[in-house]
Design brief:
Layout lengths: L1 E7 L38 E7 L5 E7 L4 H17 L3 E7 L2 H14 L6 E4 L1 H9 L12 H6 L9 E2 L2 E2 L2 E2 L5 E6 H6 L8 H11 L15 H12 L17 H15 L15 H4 L5 E5 L11 E4 L12 E3 L3 E4 L5 H15 L2 H11 L7 H6 L1 H4 L3 H10 L3 E3 L5 H17 L2 H19 L6
C-alpha cells in the first residue's frame, strides 16, 4: 500500500499559522529521541506530492531551511529529486520557511514539541541554542581530513564543541566599504584606508544632498555584525580565549569611540531611508560611502561604484571582515536510521563542491569558506572588480560571526547604542562588561570572538 508524502517548498512571503514563540530549554534535552518523524509536512504554498512505499519503502528524511527565494527553492527541488532518484533507501522532503518564522518560532517550537526535522540549518544568530541544548549530531565521521583542510582555518569554529564538528558551513556573507566613484573623484578623495581617512572623507563628502558615510546606527543583529571587524582589525576580541567577556578592552572601546565620533560629527546618515543592509542607499544617491555586504557585489554597477576593505585602525595596519552564513546540522532526536539517512543526504548534497558552487554562485550569491568552491566559481567570483576585491582581499581577512545567545547579543547591542547616544564609549563598555560577566556566571555561558 502506498502513502503520499509532501515535498514542500514555499515562495517568499507565504506565512504559517504558528503557535506562540517557544524558547528552547530543558524541555528539549533528550525529548523525542528515537521518535519517527511524521511523513507528511503540511504548509500553505506550493506542495509537490510524491508517492513513497509504506512500511517496506524508503526511510523518510525531513529537511527544513529558510531558502525561500525562487532560485533557491528551484535549486533545492532539483537536487532533492535527483538524490531521491539516485537510491531507494531514503526519501528526502524539504520545507523552505520564511526567515523570520524559521528563526523565531518554527524551528524552536518543532524541537520543543518533539516534531524536529531530521536536517535543519542555523545561522550564528541562533546556532548556540541548539548546540547548548545538545540536540545536534556530530558530523566528524563524514567530514574527512581532506574536506576539513579544504575549508579556511576558522570555518568550523562556530559549529564545533569540545573538539567535535556539528555543522557544515554553506555560505559566507562578508562586509566591506562601498563608495560612489564619481563623487569621490569629483572631490579628489581616494577611498579611505584608515579610520582617520574615513572620518576626513566623510566630512568632505557630506552635503545637503547626500551623507558622507552610512553605517548602521539602529540596534540589531546587522549593527553587531558590522561592528565586530572594527575590534578584530586591532587584534582585539569581545571575549577572551577562555570565552569570558572582554567588552571593556581597549580595542572594543576604541571601536565604539570611532563609531561615536562618526555619528557625532554630523557627517553620517543617521536616518537612512531603509535598512543599511540595502545597497540602494548608495545607488539611489543617499550616501557617498556605505558599509555593505558581499550580497550586493553583483547588484551594483562596478563602473559607478567601487569596493575596498574596511579601513584599518592605523596606516599600515590590518583590516578585517566578518563572515556570516548558514550551517547544515543533523538532529540527534531522530532514530539511528534517520540520522544515518540525514548524514548520507548532506554528504551527497552539501559536501559536493559542484553542488555548493552552483548554490553559492547561481541559486544565490555568497562566498564560501571552502577553497575549492572559490576556485570552481572563479568565473563569478572574478567577474568584476568589486567581486575580485571580495575574493582576493576581503575573504582572507574574515572571521566567522560570533555565535551569541539572545541575551548576550542584547548586551552587546545595548553597549553599542549606549556608546552612540547615551554615554561615553568607556562607560558603555564597562557597564556591558559587568552585565555580560553576570550573565555568563549565572548561565555558564562561554563565547568565542
Amino acid at each position: 500500500m502506498k502513502r503520499k508524502v509532501a515535498a514542500c517548498y514555499l515562495k517568499k512571503g507565504m506565512a504559517y499559522c504558528l503557535m506562540g514563540a517557544m524558547l528552547l530549554g530543558l524541555s528539549i534535552g533528550t525529548a523525542g529521541c528515537g521518535k519517527e518523524q511524521k511523513g507528511t509536512q503540511e504548509a500553505e504554498g506550493n506542495t509537490e506530492i510524491q508517492e513513497v512505499e509504506g512500511n517496506d519503502g524508503p526511510i523518510e528524511i525531513v529537511y527544513w531551511n529558510q531558502w525561500t527565494q525562487e532560485d533557491e527553492t528551484a535549486f533545492l527541488k532539483k537536487y532533492v529529486e535527483e538524490y531521491n532518484s539516485s537510491q531507494d533507501k531514503y526519501h528526502v522532503s524539504f520545507l523552505a520557511i520564511p526567515y523570520e518564522e524559521y528563526t523565531t518560532t518554527k524551528l524552536a517550537t518543532a524541537f520543543a514539541t518533539n516534531e524536529a526535522p531530521d536536517i535543519f540549518e542555523c545561522s550564528p544568530a541562533i546556532i548556540n541554542q541548539y548546540l547548548d541544548a545538545g540536540v545536534c549530531e556530530p558530523l566528524d565521521d563524514i567530514i574527512t581530513d581532506e574536506i576539513r583542510n579544504d575549508f579556511t582555518d576558522a570555518a568550523f569554529d562556530r559549529v564545533s564543541r569540545d573538539g567535535k564538528i556539528y555543522g557544515i558551513p554553506l555560505d559566507s556573507d562578508l562586509v566591506a566599504l562601498y563608495y560612489n566613484k564619481e563623487i569621490l573623484e569629483q572631490n579628489d578623495i581616494d577611498p579611505p584606508t584608515t579610520w582617520a581617512e574615513l572620518k576626513d572623507a566623510a566630512a568632505k563628502l557630506n552635503t545637503a544632498d547626500y551623507a558622507g558615510f552610512t553605517f548602521e546606527v539602529d540596534k540589531g543583529d546587522w549593527q553587531c555584525f558590522t561592528f565586530y571587524p572594527f575590534v578584530w582589525m586591532q587584534g582585539g576580541s569581545l571575549f577572551t580565549s577562555d570565552g569570558m567577556a572582554n567588552l571593556n578592552s581597549e580595542e572594543v572601546v576604541n571601536a565604539l569611540q570611532l563609531w561615536k565620533d562618526l555619528l557625532d560629527s554630523g557627517d553620517c546618515n543617521e536616518t537612512p531611508g531603509r535598512s543599511v543592509s540595502d545597497i540602494s542607499i548608495l545607488t539611489n544617491g543617499e550616501t557617498a560611502m556605505q558599509i555593505n555586504g558581499s550580497w550586493s557585489v553583483l547588484r551594483v554597477d562596478s563602473e559607478k561604484y567601487g569596493v575596498v576593505p574596511l579601513p584599518a585602525a592605523t596606516a599600515g595596519g590590518d583590516t578585517a571582515s566578518v563572515a556570516g552564513g548558514w550551517n547544515v546540522l543533523v538532529s540527534n532526536q531522530s532514530s539511528e536510521e534517520k540520522i544515518a539517512g540525514a548524514k548520507d543526504f548532506i554528504s551527497w548534497m552539501w559536501l559536493n563542491v559542484d553542488h555548493v558552487t552552483e548554490f553559492d554562485t547561481k541559486a544565490k550569491f555568497s562566498y564560501c569558506m571552502r577553497n575549492s568552491v572559490i576556485e570552481a566559481g572563479a568565473e563569478v567570483y572574478q567577474s568584476n572588480p568589486n567581486a575580485i576585491v571580495f575574493s582576493d582581499e576581503v575573504l582572507q581577512t574574515a572571521k566567522p560571526e560570533i555565535a551569541l545567545s539572545g541575551e548576550a547579543k542584547e548586551i552587546v547591542s545595548t553597549m553599542i547604542q549606549d556608546a552612540l547616544y547615551n554615554m561615553s564609549a568607556k562607560e558603555a563598555a564597562d557597564i556591558a562588561q559587568e552585565s555580560m560577566l553576570k550573565y555568563q556566571e549565572a548561565n555558564g555561558a562561554r563565547f568565542g570572538g
